[in-house]
Specification:
Elements: E1 4-10, H1 15-23, E2 28-35, H2 41-48, E3 53-55, H3 64-77, E4 82-85, H4 94-99, E5 104-108, H5 120-127, E6 131-138, E7 148-155, H6 162-187
Parallel strand pairs: 1-2, 1-4, 2-3, 4-5
Antiparallel strand pairs: 5-6, 6-7
Helix pairs in contact: 1-6
The protein binds glycinamide ribonucleotide.
């Protein structure tokens, strides 16, 4: 059986990338990691799992369109048909969206549409909401706004801090994201 070739895009620590790798998703090969932060910890994780990396700095290109053109060429050359965003803190532009329509998914640490954008965990603690959670969704041109694939709720504790909530959210993320990817690969 030929495997689906996928790329993970990440900017930071890479705990979700690690969770995806550890799951060894049947029928899915993580062909490479794209990272926009040359010092990100996720690059060490990719080396550990022997996953090739493509690391770039947006400031080295004249526009989003210019670096996404390079990314599209690399992805297509490698036969990549799915993109999993795992803490990739950059909006996806038209260049990638046109080629990978309904084939880019993202994980976000809130119950979207609540708290899109940066620091969703901090935003939820600050707002004092009774519940928050994790969302996996298709990516469109908006900020964390595409169609929702799966969500999992978490009750907020009365004495919740960003640290306690982040720990519990990440535990959910590391279980939910590989599971959703597994389901999508079965249907592909
Ligand atoms: C994760 O919590 C992910 O949901 C969030 O970044 C973190 C990356 O952690 N993504 C977003 O906020 C996207 N808007 P990781 O690098 O340890 O996987």
């Amino acid at each position: 059986m030929s495997k689906v070739r996928a790329a993970v895009f990440a900017s930071g620590t890479g705990s979700n990338f690690e969770a995806i790798m550890k799951e060894k998703i049947p029928g899915c090969d993580i062909t490479f990691l794209v990272c926009d932060q040359p010092d990100a910890k996720v690059i060490d994780k990719a080396n550990y799992f022997d996953v090739p990396t493509f690391v770039f700095s947006a400031k080295d290109y004249p526009s989003k369109q210019a670096y996404e053109r390079v990314l599209v060429d690399k992805l297509q050359e490698a036969g990549v048909t799915w993109i999993f965003l795992a803490g990739y803190m950059r909006m996806i532009g038209k260049m990638l969206l046109d080629v990978y329509e309904e084939r880019i998914i993202n994980i976000h640490p809130s119950l979207l549409p609540a708290f899109p954008g940066k620091d969703a965990i901090g935003q939820a603690v600050e707002a004092g909401v009774g519940k928050t959670g994790v969302t996996v969704h298709y990516v469109d041109s908006g900020m964390d706004s595409g169609p929702i694939i799966a969500q999992e709720e978490l009750e907020m504790f009365p004495d919740e801090t960003i640290e306690t909530l982040k720990k519990r959210i990440q535990k959910v993320e590391h279980r939910l994201y590989p599971r959703v990817i597994k389901d999508l690969m079965l249907k592909d």
